[in-house]
């Protein structure tokens, strides 16, 4: 690892814009002073399928991290965030570290599946199923009630300062706060809202995620969004097949690919490595809308 004035430099994070999983490491780096740069020419669906990328990261998952000397290669987003964090974010003793790990696991198992299942239909990524959405909503709100109670007497989740626990839970909840947790719901989760806004307004956080606009009114399902996304996907698929057929004689010619769309991973289970895939259908949807689950 190359260091200058005790700061890690030239570390690379492979990701596409607004990947909430990548936010974890980028925010942690802001606090620790790690010089993590996002790979400037990364193209989702192309870069992460290239031979060079797969040689370093065989699963083709993003976000992916490479140290300055190329000796440290990581994919799982929590692991990357931990690696670039400092002692304050990681926890100064084993008990604190375990508590931080507990919240990180809780975010992945309790918050993320329910948030995805509630948010996705309103983004047009999947068809609306009232029963599934209601169940997801109830599950997420139940989890947030637990979080609200925990934060009643605390500013942050584990210590008196921001740790990886706060960063990971915060980034996991961003899309719920933007799309489904309207003002009425937030009024019953005053401690969670206070904590979320405290995090969002930290300079180190805001410099990564920008200004987060909260959902103010209950979301409404627009079937046209789902139809448009599916139509776009079908047309893109036909175009790719025609291009592939036309350019067969040319060896390894670069194939033009559309920008990464939110439903790509959901519609391609054979390419997904998402552990949620093995869970019962009808509730836990693939939470890989923003890239491979990592």
Automatic annotation (TrEMBL):
The source's domain of life comes to Eukaryota
Q: Check the record and name the PROSITE patterns matching this protein.
A: GST_CTER (PS50405), GST_NTER (PS50404)
Q: Which InterPro entries does the record match to this protein?
A: EF-GSTs (IPR050802), Glutathione-S-Trfase_C-like (IPR010987), Glutathione-S-Trfase_C_sf (IPR036282), Glutathione_S-Trfase (IPR040079), Glutathione_S-Trfase_N (IPR004045), GST_C (IPR004046), Thioredoxin-like_sf (IPR036249)
Annotated region Disordered: the residues are 224-281
Q: Which GO terms describe its cellular component?
A: cytoplasm; nucleus
Q: Name one GO biological process term.
A: translational elongation
> The GST C-terminal domain covers which part of the protein?
93-221
Q: Which residues form the GST N-terminal domain?
A: 9-92
Pfam families in the record, alphabetically?
Answer: GST_C, GST_N
Q: Record's family? A: Belongs to the GST superfamily.
- Record protein name field: Elongation factor 1-gamma
């Amino acid at each position: 690892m190359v260091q200058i004035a005790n700061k890690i430099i030239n570390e690379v994070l492979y990701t596409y814009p607004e990947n909430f999983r990548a936010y974890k490491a980028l925010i942690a780096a802001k606090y620790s002073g790690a010089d993590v740069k996002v790979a400037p020419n990364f193209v989702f669906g192309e870069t992460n399928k290239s031979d060079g990328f797969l040689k370093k990261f065989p699963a083709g998952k993003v976000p992916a991290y490479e140290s300055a000397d190329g000796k440290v290669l990581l994919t799982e987003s929590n692991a990357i965030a931990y690696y670039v964090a400092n002692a304050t974010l990681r926890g100064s003793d084993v008990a604190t570290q375990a508590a931080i790990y507990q919240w990180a696991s809780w975010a992945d198992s309790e918050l993320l599946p329910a948030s995805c299942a509630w948010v996705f239909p309103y983004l047009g990524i999947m068809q609306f199923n009232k029963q599934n959405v209601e169940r997801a909503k109830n599950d997420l709100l139940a989890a947030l009630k637990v979080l609200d109670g925990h934060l009643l007497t605390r500013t942050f989740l584990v210590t008196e300062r921001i740790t990886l626990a706060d960063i990971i839970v915060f980034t996991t909840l961003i899309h719920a706060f933007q799309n489904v947790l309207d003002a009425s719901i937030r009024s019953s989760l005053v401690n969670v809202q206070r904590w979320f806004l405290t995090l969002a307004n930290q300079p180190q956080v805001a410099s990564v995620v920008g200004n987060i606009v909260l959902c103010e009114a209950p979301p409404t399902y627009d079937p046209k969004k789902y139809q448009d996304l599916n139509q776009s996907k079908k047309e893109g698929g036909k175009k790719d097949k025609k291009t592939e057929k036309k350019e067969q004689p040319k060896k390894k010619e670069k194939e033009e690919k559309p920008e990464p769309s939110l439903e790509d991973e959901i519609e391609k289970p054979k390419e997904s490595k998402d552990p949620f895939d093995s869970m019962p259908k009808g509730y836990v949807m693939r939470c890989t809308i923003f890239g491979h689950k990592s």
